[in-house]
Every structure is written in structure tokens, then in C-alpha cells.
Write a structure and sequence with these properties.
By secondary structure, the protein is mainly α. The chain is about 40% helix and about 5% strand. Helix 3 runs antiparallel to helix 7 and helix 6 runs antiparallel to helix 7. This is Reverse transcriptase.
């Protein structure tokens, strides 16, 4: 150890005695110096191929774009303008509507629970339909914690008991099988057929859908809250759906009512 024991000058000297017996392999390693780091001679073929592919991609991209001019117009401020946070805008609409209904005593004070305190932007993902040609993807919008999530659940609980009383109500696939088991024709001059409807929910006009909601709300024995109040909440959902569907013609967001986690199989 050197005389100067400060941390920056602290050094350790290792002395190998002359009478220390070393093998040829040990002498070979020591002769390479203390900076020598032995590594395995085995090469990871997968890593090498991955590195080569990344390198070739970078080279090809540079070759493709090397003579391309930048056509972007930086003088157009609208092109680079930050988009508005639609989640906060929708949250304010929901919050103001709920507070207004509470102030008019059309909803109880506990209706503040219908307001999401920490809303988040809905996200979209796709489920591949492996049973169809070219495996198209079904777009699914995850609206968990979106501004209208609690309102949707609230209206669902009000309508679900009424929907179950409708003659055309079928709960799920198991319920359909039970109906078919007891189904019979009165005579032989009957035909049974199936049909597929494309975009069943998205082709329903909002105005007619709201009128159908009012009809269901009017069927309640206890009309508290009033049908008009519930319609104002339903209008918030239709506004949200319309805004989402306006982003892209291929994106169709729907509002569906179900009291079971098992829906019909899409075949």
C-alpha cells in the first residue's frame, strides 16, 4: 500500500512469491495482465442473428430515406398543436350534469358517486378471429374508469330486471339451449332459420334508442328517479359513443346491456 492513504490514491499491490507453484494454464492467464477478462468461446447464434437483423434494418432505412426531402410544414401551427384532453372534457360534462340534477333534487345527494374521481382515457385492443379467413380483428374498447362507466352500470341495473320480462329475452347460450329443448312446431308446415345482422347496435339511431329507453323506464312500478332524469344520463352515454365513433370509420363503439359474463358465441 502506498504512503498516501487518501481514497483517490489508495492502491493495492499483489506480489506472487517465486516459490509458488503455478500450472501452465495459470501462468498463461496471469501473463495477460490484470485487465484480462476470460469469456466463453460459445456464441449465442440467436443473439447474433438478432443483432444482424437490427443492423440491416437501420442500414436499409438510411438507404431508403437518404434522398427524401422533409415535406413537413413547421409554419403551420395547427399541425403541431397539442390535442385536447377529451377525457377531461367528458369528465366535466358528466360532473356538471350530475351536480345540476342534484341541485334540482332530481337525483339524491348520493348521486355524486356516479362521478369518476380519477378518470382515464379508454384504450382499444383487438381480438383475432382465428376461425375466419385472414383472421380479422374485433376492435374492443376498454372503457374501465372512463367518465361514464358508473353511469352505464347504474342504468344497467335499472333496465336489467325489465329487459328480463320481455318475451324475446334470452340470457345466454345456455338459456337458448333450454328454450330450444322444449321448442316444437304445432304442425309440419313451418320453417326455422337463422340470420346474421351486421353492426346490430351501431345502426340504431340515437334518437330512436333514447325513445326505446324512455319506454323501458316508463314500465317501472317505482319511477324514482324520473324517466326524464334517467334519459339525461343516457344522453351522456350517447354523446360519448358518438364522439368515440367519429375518430375513425372502422371504429364502432357500442353500449350493450348484459347481466352475465357469458355472451353468445360469435361464429
Amino acid at each position: 500500500v502506498t504512503n498516501d492513504s487518501s481514497p483517490e490514491n489508495l492502491k493495492t499491490v499483489v506480489t506472487i512469491p517465486e516459490n509458488l507453484l503455478l500450472s501452465d494454464s495459470e501462468k498463461s492467464v496471469l501473463s495477460k495482465g490484470l485487465n484480462f477478462v476470460p469469456i466463453s468461446q460459445k456464441t449465442d447464434e440467436f443473439s447474433v442473428k438478432q443483432d444482424v437483423e437490427k443492423f440491416l434494418r437501420r442500414v436499409q432505412l438510411k438507404a431508403f430515406f437518404h434522398d427524401k426531402e422533409d415535406d413537413s410544414n413547421t409554419s403551420n401551427k395547427d399541425t403541431f398543436k397539442t390535442l385536447q384532453n377529451l377525457t377531461l372534457i367528458n369528465q366535466n360534462i358528466v360532473k356538471n350534469t350530475i351536480n345540476d340534477l342534484i341541485a334540482k333534487q332530481e337525483l339524491p345527494a348520493t348521486a355524486k358517486n356516479l362521478i369518476i374521481t380519477t378518470p382515464r382515457t379508454s384504450c382499444i385492443y383487438f381480438l383475432p378471429k382465428i376461425h375466419k379467413p385472414n383472421n380479422p380483428g374485433r376492435p374492443i374498447v376498454s372503457a374501465c374508469s372512463c367518465p361514464t362507466e358508473v353511469i352505464s352500470s347504474y342504468l344497467d341495473k335499472i333496465k336489467a330486471p325489465i329487459v328480463k320480462t320481455l318475451p324475446s329475452y334470452i340470457k345466454d347460450s345456455q338459456h337458448a339451449l333450454e328454450i330450444f329443448r322444449d321448442f316444437s312446431f304445432l304442425d309440419q308446415n313451418k320453417l326455422i332459420f337463422t340470420m346474421d345482422i351486421t353492426f346490430l347496435y351501431t345502426v340504431i339511431p340515437n334518437d330512436e334508442g333514447l325513445r326505446a329507453h324512455k319506454h323501458v323506464f316508463d314500465l317501472r312500478t317505482v319511477k324514482e328517479p324520473s324517466s326524464e332524469t334517467l334519459l339525461r344520463l343516457a344522453e351522456l352515454l350517447t354523446q360519448f359513443i358518438t364522439a368515440v365513433n367519429s375518430f375513425h370509420p372502422a371504429l364502432k363503439y357500442t353500449w350493450e346491456i348484459s347481466d352475465t359474463s357469458l355472451a353468445f358465441l360469435d361464429i
